[in-house]
Amino acid sequence: MEKEEGNSLKSAPQATTISRRELLKLAGIGGAGLLLGAAGMGGLWNKADKATGGALGTEPRNLASGDQIPFYGDHQAGITTPAQNHILFAAFDVTAAGADNVRELFKAWTAAAAEMAKGSMIGDKNEHANLPPSDTGEAAGLSPSKLTITFGAGPSLFDGRFGLSAKRPAALVDLPAFGGDELLEEWSGGDLAVQVNADDMQVAFHAIRNLARIARGKAVLRWTQEGFQRTGAADKAGATPRNLMGFKDGTANPDTSDQAEMERIVWADASDGAAWMAGGSYMIVRRIRIRVEVWDRSTLQDQEATFGRYRHSGAPLGGKDEFDAVELSRKDEQGEPIIPIRSHMALARGDGTNKILRRSFSYSSGMDHKTGQLDAGLLFVCFNRDSRKQFIPMQQKLGQSDLLNEYIVHTGSAIFACFPGVKEGGYIGETLL
Fold it and tell me: Is the CB of residue 404 less than 8 Å from the CB of residue 354?
């Protein structure tokens, strides 16, 4: 559950990367450098936007500096992109028959997603009084708000309905049962995944609403979940976000500006056995409910032993600073490990060689009317090159022994193969179809 978001764009036409540590250093030196950098990136994006124009709809709106993230690129945005303020995740089930219908849906989704990422309205029927508007309109006048839309295919898309069985990647496995699972069908599975992130929830909702509208007759929503983290406006220093348990959540994520590291941890390769997935990644989504009422009655000492970190600083137990080296072998005066061996961090870290890219958000879905308790927790999202070697063994250890299991329950689960990036003129999933 240790959400540790990856925070950078990787390759052209996406923005220049900056690591978390570099960001924190710049924030410490002074905000002016960050503002100048953002303005520079925004200028480049605005120039690119003017060059491409708005093929489907109105001209793009005036953009705030750095407010647009390109949709087209070698990899899909929303994977190594710096985490935005909000997520709206949606799983769809395909209802139409035949691969041709899936292809047409992907083409329509691609065209719409590219326009929305630029801040344009969809289609050319928005000024015709006698026709339904082609865009639902609630994002009119709003900036793109760093909108990203990431698409993926679930194992059920390869069940034979669309002639894709032979193309199912070996890495797209059905997730096994884990300790702590109390999975509900209404929060699990799906033929297709759409992960929408943005700095404005209305912009994110607009994207999912329009994609669901475009899908009518071909696919239907299966489940959705909104999520959030602290906003950039609330934390000018850009420190590591905290989860709903009050702990910093994202400290140990791999550096997404390290291309070699991303190739090893995140991006699938043709040599992995599914050539059509080269440049894509495998996404796991887990809806994890936190028993906040139980957690809130726990002592600070118990909470810190559960995570293996100090709540205030985020430092590993026995350390001083958030990014101090983790010393799992270090003992106290009684010969006991300073960082409990069953702490969440110790189990998730292991020997340090098995890594995933976390990109998760807190959620709050109001009150559970059956129990009178809060339905709140973590929408865990991670990306890896091969879940069989990365996420699954890590989660198996956590499910068996994690001290955190006393306070959480996994209520939803899904895995998806996120397509490679899209070139202009192409469409998502074209390497598959």
Answer: no
CA dihedral of 163, 166, 171, 172, whole degrees rounded to 10: 20
How far lies 152's CA from each of 162, 193, 242, in Å? 16, 5, 28
Specify whether the CB–CB gap between 375 and 367 falls below 8 A. Answer: yes
Give the span between the Cα atoms of 366 and 157, in whole angstroms. 32
Q: Can you give the C-alpha Rg of the chain in angstroms?
A: 22
Phi-psi region of 6 (alpha: psi -120 to 50; beta: other; left: phi over 0): beta
Structure tokens at 53: 């124009």
Long-range (24+ apart) CB contacts under 8 A made by 46-49 are: 48/13, 49/118
In contact, 199 and 117? CB cutoff 8 Å? no
DSSP 256-282: TT-HHHHHHHT---GGGT-GGGTT-EE
Count how many residues are written for the chain: 433
Instruction: Please give the distance of CA 184 from its chain centroid, rounded to a whole number.
Output: 21
- C-alpha 279/C-alpha 263 separation (Å) is 9
User: Which residue stretches of the chain have pLDDT < 50?
Assistant: 1-64
pTM, 2 dp: 0.84
> What does the alpha-carbon distance between residue 58 and residue 115 come to, in Å, rounded to a whole number?
9
Task: Identify the burial level of 260 via C-beta atoms within 10 angstroms of its C-beta, where 0-12 means exposed, 13-18 middle and 19 or more buried.
Answer: exposed
CB atoms inside a 10 Å sphere around CB 279: 19
Which residues, 6 or more positions from 357, have their beta carbon under 8 angstroms from its beta carbon?
6, 79, 80, 253, 254, 256, 262, 265, 266, 382, 383, 384
Report the distance separating Cα 381 and Cα 87, nearest Å.
10
Reading the block at residue 347, the tokens are 């189990």
CA dist 228 and 230 (Å) reads 7
- What's the CA gap between 273 and 171, in Å, rounded? 9
Query: What is the per-residue pLDDT across 107-119, written as a single tens digit (0 to 9) for each?
Result: 999 999 999 999 9
pLDDT tens sequence across 188-224 = 999 999 999 999 999 999 999 999 999 999 999 999 9
